[in-house]
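Reading a protein record of the kind used here takes only a little practice. Think of the row as the fold of the chain written in a discrete alphabet. With that in mind, consider the following protein and its fold in token form:
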Amino acid sequence: HVEHPAFDAWQSLKGCLVLAAAVVGFLIPGLPREIVALTAAALDEAPEDPAHRLRVALLEARFARPAAALAAARPAFAAAARDALLGDLLGMIGDTLHRIGAVEEAAEMLRHGWRASPRAVMRRSFLAAALPAYRRSINTGADLALLEEMAEAAAGAIAAIPAELLGEVARLSEEAGRDDLLRTLGDAALAAGDAARARVLSGIGSD
């Protein structure tokens, strides 16, 4: 059970109306300042509502404003980590950001939403965004916490993870000296009776 702030119907309704106006503005070319103002106003109307925050973040992502999307969504991360519907909304935001090349922001969104969702597609989306984000982090100090989360996500639904994503997680784990993550992935493949993925993992571990 997730505790949300008390529902204020009037504030939420105003927020939805302002957000709807922003969506309409998005469809009209040449109104960038007005759109930014409307999304800011929409957030101000119901700042404590996590679903409303995530809808605003999705709109910001569609405006190709990844930093603004992340800022709008961040206060809703704790709620989204425990609520499947909010987690799926985070997944939509992450996928949108990934499509425009904002992989760090996409990975940050998805890493707070994939555990709440029962759908394997959320894990695949997380891995697809997190892999390039992790590779970028290597030059400035590898984000090992992100690598651990990728291994956890892959191991939890290993049969549904594309072999190329799984193989890349395994190779990065090996390069990081994290044999424990390789073992976690291998054990998951064996437990699932997935001989093909077990062979992929054993081949990487024996190089």
Remarks:
- Residues 74 and 170 are 29 Å apart (CA to CA).
- The chain is about 70% helix and 0% strand.
- The first helix runs from residue 9 to 26.
